[in-house]
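Below is how a single chain appears once it has passed through the pipeline. First comes the sequence as given, then the structure the pipeline wrote out for it. We keep one example in the README because the format questions we get most often are answered faster by looking than by reading.
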Amino acid sequence: MLCSSSGLILVLVLFWGPGHAGPMTDPHPNMSDQELFWGRDQYDFSVVLRAAGLDCFWHFAHHGERFYLNYMVQWVTGVGHDRHLTVTVNAPGGRLISNIDEAKGQINFETKETGFYQMCFSNFHNRFGTMQVFLSFGVYYDGYQDPAKSKEEEKKKKEEVSKDLNNTLGIIENTSQKVDLYVFHMIRHYAFNRMTKSADYFLLQSNSRYVTWWSWALSILIVTCGYLQLFFLKRLFVTTNVTEGEKPRC
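Resulting structure:
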């Protein structure tokens, strides 16, 4: 019985192989990080930070490329209405890259490491109020060349130099890449302007509500004060008819 069970285990090991002994940690073992993550991208969204809260986000970037982050506080609730926001950006190795403590800011730097960069937003200035923050971040590549195609392009360049021909297709491709990059930067700056416009809109709404409530409060206060003044003035001129028997005696 023991020999038959051990033989069955040996057959299963030989059939499945050592690779099926544990969970698969890499979903794409035959693909490099260049093929998985390479490309320009950007994200625009708003996030609400709770009172004294901290939220962090991560974004992937390659070594030598450009990483940017734009943010702006749109509205704040609570008593103090402190619009200051503490923003930190850390490298994949944990090194602090940038630290800003303002209501709006722009961070743009060249990445020195390949990996996921951490962005943290802290609302510790407002202990009793929440705030909404608009975020725009991403990665763009100015001089991108796919490593798998670099050798082929070098070979093509050597052939072009030797033949001394004008490669129209290469010129069109380079021009289209430049136009694509310019359009990307235009969209990025437009997102920041849209961020500013939304912040102004929320500020306008907040000021409108503030003026409306104070106007109602002051109007009620003025009417109440006028009524009380009139009431006490009338009491000063109130006279009573006193008869001979009701006169006060010493």
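The helical segments are 2-16, 33-37, 147-163, 168-236.

See the next section for the split statistics.
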